[in-house]
Structure formats: structure tokens, C-alpha cells
Amino acid sequence: MLRGILEKSQKFNFLGNPPIDDHIRNAMGFAQVIHEFTGENQKGKIYDLGSGGGVPALVLIEKLKEWEFVLIERKEKRADFLFEAISDLNASERVTIVCDEAENTARNEKFSFGADFVTARSFGPPAITAECACRLLKLNGFLVVSEPPSNTDRWVHEKLSLTGLNPIKHTKFNDSNFQVLQQLQHPSDGLPRRAGVTRKRPLW
Ligand SMILES: C[S@@+](CC[C@H](N)C(=O)[O-])C[C@H]1O[C@@H](n2cnc3c(N)ncnc32)[C@H](O)[C@@H]1O
Prior knowledge:
- The protein is α/β, with parallel strands linked by helices.
- It has a single domain (2-200), classed as Rossmann fold (3-Layer(aba) Sandwich).
- Helices cover 33% and strands 24% of the residues.
- It is built from 7 helices and 7 strands, in the order ααβαβαβαβαβββα.
- It has helices spanning 2-11, 20-37, 57-63, 76-88, 102-107, 126-134, 197-200; strands spanning 45-49, 68-72, 95-98, 115-120, 137-147, 165-173, 176-183.
- The longest helix has 18 residues, at 20-37.
- The chain is globular, with a radius of gyration of 16 Å.
- The model has no long low-confidence stretch (mean pLDDT 96).
- The structure holds S-adenosylmethionine (SAM).
- Residues 15, 50-53, 55, 72-75, 78, 101-103, 121-124, 195 line the site of S-adenosylmethionine.
- S-adenosylmethionine is lined by residues 15, 50-53, 55, 72-75, 78, 101-103, 121-124, 195.
């Protein structure tokens, strides 16, 4: 079922060209990071930024059956696709699809400070990802980001402190790299700024 859904996603051009197995392997890396950073209590809430064609979100929904999910996607056609996908996966009861900008979602009291984990793959540069994630995460929650293959200092910047996020680990599973950040302080009141502003004037 999941594979068929991801094949459909690729046909609609919601998902990049690599083979479906590569997408699934990358998403399983997110699951391993989540497993590593979750304590005894292997359940909670995972929010996915820019869920698009469903990776890693749909794979995680299938793998982590005890968890609740919020999938945030601003494009209506993609959100519709995700809505149908979670219905096909019989996961509608524990998954919410939000068709809106992540910046607005973070300011919606239904969602702010609600996530144990925020996941992001190809959502945007670090400054935008951190700004959108910081008001969605609970204090001490984790942001997990799929990283480009070359190890860079993408997350090292003095402005990151405004978000309250701290890089705590760069890790690799199979052939995918991940950066893990922890929400150690409350974000600055002004973050995230309005959608559009985060893109036009990134924090760094
Ligand atoms: C390059 S795609 C990646 C999708 C998926 N995570 C993947 O890796 O296949 C980025 C997605 O994020 C969505 N997106 C980008 N910025 C957003 C924002 N500020 N709020 C909500 N969705 C956003 C886009 O519409 C797009 O579907």
C-alpha cells in the first residue's frame, strides 16, 4: 500500500526521481533518529514540515504506529494527496493534515509548542527550517533534518540562538545524514515571522 502511494506521488511529481526504495531508506533514518532520542515512552507527537509527496511523513506513520502526526503543507493539491494517502493507510485518526504555511501553523495555538519531534526533508535552508520549527516544538523537543551529503557548518550561526534551538548531533544512517537540534530555550517572541518574510529575509 505505502509503496503504491509513493509511486503515485512520484507520478504526480510530488516526490523526487530517486527510486522509491531510496526514499523509504532515507525516511527510515528519521525513524532511527527518533528512536534514539526518545526515552522509555516510545510515543508522542511528530510534526512534519513541508510534507509534499509524503516523505518522510507517510513512511513514519506506517512505522511508528503509536505516534500522532501533524503534516504541514501549504500547497492544496499536495495536501489533498496526503489526505487521501492517510485515509488509504487507515491512519486518519492519529494524523492531522494542515494545509497552510508552517509560519501560520506555528502561531496557531492548536499546534504551537505541541511537538516532541519536528521532521524536515528538503523544506528549506537551515535558517527558515529553524525559524518555522521553533514555535512548534515543546521545550526540550527535537528538530530532525535530513542533510546534504557533504558535512558543512550549516547550523553554526549566532542568530540560531534566537530560535532557542541547539545543534546536538550530526549523525548518519545507511547513506543519509541527519542534523539533530534540541529546543533548549523558548524562542524569541517575534519568531517565526510572517510567511514570505522568513524567505525574503532569512535570519542568516
Ligand atoms: C521540496 S518539497 C519536499 C517535500 C518532502 N518533504 C520530500 O522531501 O519529498 C518541499 C515542500 O514543502 C512545502 N513548503 C515549503 N515551504 C513551506 C511553508 N513555509 N509552509 C508549508 N509548506 C511549505 C512545499 O510546498 C513543498 O511541498
